[in-house]
Amino acid sequence: LEEIPRPVQDSGNILKQGYLEKRSREPSFFGSEWHKRWCVLTQRNFFYYANEKSKQPKGSFPIEHYRARLASQLRKDSRKKCCFQLLCPGKRSYEFTAPSPAEAEDWVEQIQFLLKADLSSLTIPCEEEEEE
């Protein structure tokens, strides 16, 4: 049984992980603009690695102000139903292709769930809830 390396910066729980294709910011003329990345979603951050054995992420960003949505307009091919985006006002957006439409939906749902859960637990102390 192989141990999955934990992201060093974040010992938080891993909510979801798996291979996604990530769209590069500067599409190269030579290769695909989509690169396979091992992606890890924790309660605070989204990490992406070259592969699941990598110890150092190629990149990461705090997930808290992002929202996720399915985005079939990102591709023209048969995998367009597998695409989703992470969007944040004023920040770079991220675009991914999942292995299947169901996986894409699951990533989106996990991220939306995380944001709802997190925001509600962070903002309002319980006693003051009636004052809305």
UniProtKB/TrEMBL annotation:
Pfam families: PH. It comes from the Eukaryota. InterPro entries: PH-like_dom_sf, PH_domain, SKAP_fam. Its main location: membrane. It is found in: Cell membrane; Cytoplasm; Nucleus. Gene3D superfamilies: Pleckstrin-homology domain (PH domain)/Phosphotyrosine-binding domain (PTB) (2.30.29.30). Keywords: Cell membrane, Cytoplasm, Membrane, Nucleus, Phosphoprotein. Residues 13-116 form the PH domain. GO terms for cellular component: cytoplasm; nucleus; plasma membrane. This is SKAP1 protein. The gene is Skap1.
